[in-house]
């Protein structure tokens, strides 16, 4: 047997099935024209797959609705979902696209001689990386060099003028690793949130239900809010920590990408914008410098006499056509995410420090509520309670939530009542 604690949240979880039984029994009494109603288990069994007057059973409709609404519980902010949902989907999609491109066609094509098999040279240059000559980017294409970055490497002499291009075989793995990092704050918050919002909702996101059911669920919610008044600060702070973690993650990933591209990513987007505004004759394309489409590869092999022979090959990297577009987009996307998340953190700090701001936000967001009810609840509650009220308002039907807040405020005004534990009748600070 399972033991159930005698507190409102436990009653919410344990009674949610029983109140549904009562609703189904009421529906059966209205539809039935003969006989008495059996217990809920027998009635629900009889309802499965049955039709009453040509209409499918209500349990089928409820099942379909539950399936369609299973992921529609809001437990975080829109900016946080941009990190955990939108960005993760983008990064996984990019990773799959790059992986597919590697196996559809050749990711690298190198010009070879008859002495070296094509597959051997392509595989060698893919595994051991290619390189570009830095000085060749400033030379004129067609007269001084064949292509920007491709020149006589032996004539360059200085090893510092050679830039290795070795990231392309790791791009798909890196994008997938980034997706995992972006989802980590969401995973932490889902673990810490523990399904509290879903349990307290009690399927009240739709206001069309039996009055008895609605009244019982509202009372359960009010009981929980009263008994656990002022006890939600740590719960809210855990979410705020996840938002800070999301900001640290997106900034850290900018530096991670900068390291991945040998220091060329942090200023990449700025240089792209400067390139677009500069004169066509004098400008140097930064995209070609970071994502060259043509590179060089040096292959050594033994000759006929046993001497080591050097072969310089020119390689085409068609994969970089895709890579450059992905990372140009990601640079601007990461900058946008960082700015929006930073503003969100500032917003959270203001909320924590200012009870008046919490009042104002509830008034603006939930206009159906009475001003005096909101003011009383915010004055008596702490910041964590405000956050719970706000999340419940995002998920529960607006009329039902208005009634819950009104009843909660009415009970808080009843000074003659024995206040439950956690309740304090003075101004609460965070």
Automatic annotation (TrEMBL):
PROSITE patterns membership: PANNEXIN
Pfam families in the cross-refs: Innexin (PF00876)
Main location as per UniProt: other
Membrane topology term: Multi-pass membrane protein
UniProt keyword list: Cell junction, Cell membrane, Gap junction, Ion channel, Ion transport, Membrane, Transmembrane, Transmembrane helix, Transport
Similarity section: Belongs to the pannexin family.
Known function: Structural component of the gap junctions.
The name this protein goes by in its record: Innexin
Protein source organism: Nicrophorus vespilloides
The gene coding this protein: LOC108568129
């Amino acid at each position: 047997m399972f033991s159930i604690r005698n507190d409102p949240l436990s009653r919410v979880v344990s009674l949610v099935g029983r109140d549904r039984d009562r609703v189904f029994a009421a529906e059966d009494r209205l539809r039935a024209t003969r006989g008495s109603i059996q217990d809920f288990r027998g009635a629900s069994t009889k309802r499965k797959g049955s039709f009453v007057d040509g209409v499918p059973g209500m349990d089928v409709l409820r099942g379909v609705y539950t399936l369609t609404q299973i992921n529609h519980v809001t437990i975080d902010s829109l900016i946080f979902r941009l990190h955990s949902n939108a960005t993760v989907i983008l990064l996984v999609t990019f990773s799959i696209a790059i992986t597919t491109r590697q196996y559809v066609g050749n990711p690298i094509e190198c010009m070879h001689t008859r002495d070296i098999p094509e597959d051997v040279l392509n595989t060698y240059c893919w595994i051991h990386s290619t390189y570009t000559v830095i000085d060749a980017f400033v030379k004129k294409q067609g007269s001084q060099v064949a292509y920007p970055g491709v020149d006589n490497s032996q004539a360059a002499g200085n090893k510092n003028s050679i830039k290795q291009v070795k990231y392309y075989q790791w791009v798909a793995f890196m994008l997938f690793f980034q997706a995992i990092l972006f989802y980590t704050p969401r995973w932490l918050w889902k673990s810490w949130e523990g399904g509290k919002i879903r349990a307290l909702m009690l399927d009240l996101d739709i206001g069309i239900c039996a009055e008895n059911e609605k009244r019982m669920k509202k009372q359960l919610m009010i009981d929980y809010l009263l008994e656990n008044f002022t006890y939600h600060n740590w719960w809210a702070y855990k979410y705020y920590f996840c938002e800070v973690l999301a900001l640290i993650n997106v900034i850290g990933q900018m530096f991670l990408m900068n390291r991945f591209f040998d220091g060329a990513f942090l200023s990449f987007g700025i240089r792209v914008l400067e390139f677009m505004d500069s004169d066509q004759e004098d400008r140097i394309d930064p995209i070609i410098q970071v994502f060259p489409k043509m590179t060089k590869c040096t292959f050594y092999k033994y000759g006929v006499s046993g001497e080591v022979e050097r072969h310089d090959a020119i390689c085409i990297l068609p994969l970089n056509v895709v890579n450059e577009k992905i990372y140009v987009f990601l640079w601007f996307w990461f900058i946008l995410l960082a700015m929006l998340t930073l503003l969100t953190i500032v917003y959270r700090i203001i909320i924590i420090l200012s009870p008046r701001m919490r009042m104002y936000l509830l008034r603006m967001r939930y206009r159906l509520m009475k001003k005096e009810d909101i003011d009383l609840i915010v004055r008596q509650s702490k910041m964590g309670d405000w956050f719970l009220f706000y999340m419940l308002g995002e998920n529960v039907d607006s009329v039902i939530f208005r009634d819950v807040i009104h009843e909660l405020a009415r009970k808080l005004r009843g000074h003659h009542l024995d206040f439950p534990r956690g309740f304090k009748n003075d101004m609460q600070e965070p």
